[in-house]
Model the fold of this input.
Amino acid sequence: MAHINRRIVGPYCWKRTNKSVEEVIAENPIGKISAISSCPFIYKIVDSRATPQGDGMFEVLFSVEPASPDETAVFLKWDWSPNADRGDQAMWTASDLRQRSWYSGIPVDKKLFCAAHQKLMPAHGGNLYDNAFVCNRCVEQIEMAIAQNTILDPQTWINKHAAISMVMNKIDEIEAHGHGNIKLGTRRFIEIVVLYEFIRNSEYKADAVIEDHYPYKDMVPTAYRGYLREDWTPDEYFNAPTKTIVFTSRNKLVDFLESGGKVPANSKK
Ligand SMILES: [Zn+2]
Done:
């Protein structure tokens, strides 16, 4: 039975003048272990085809499945000996987890809640640290930090990142709606109104990240107008803001929220 994560690589058009179908197939033989950027795992070829198109051109196509952990270790030349680089080993630990989850048959679109990102993330290569599940991106960072002796324990790292992620996720949510309230303390809120920029005709469009979750097509958030409201909760009738603060970048809004709502010194009344 085919592996659940079997996929097709190609088709490619290759020029192989004076070569037979068998010779072209032999370039991608069944059983070969390899990697390609469009495939998220180290693969093993399970079926290989080459179709002559005339003039020495071939349409090349092969089916692949995730390679086993042992095959992957040999292919990537992992070295777990004590004199190998600890940083490399940290990255290999993360790759090994990722490969094992593809190999074990976790489906391509499976997501799990990452305790550090505080949202659903791709499940492949995630790991448990003290019963907290984190995604593979976080595993890489935790393993690297352990290798470099920059953290005391994974749980401290996860808690710190969870706090930052909650701020980031809240801003994402507000960007998706155009406005929203963030609690700063007891009866103290900042209401954020997102200002968007129209970028469809911008010559810088290629550099811009156009996220489809923003409420307006071809618009990206550029600034945030914040209305600081004190002695108020969002379910109460209108109350004039104590202060209006314009955040000219997402980073400035993040700084403000991470400080617990400390008003910038130069802001106007
Ligand atoms: Zn994560």
User: Anything to note?
Assistant: Helices lie at 21-25, 69-75, 86-103, 136-147, 154-177, 250-258. The longest strand covers residues 43-54. The radius of gyration is 26 Å.
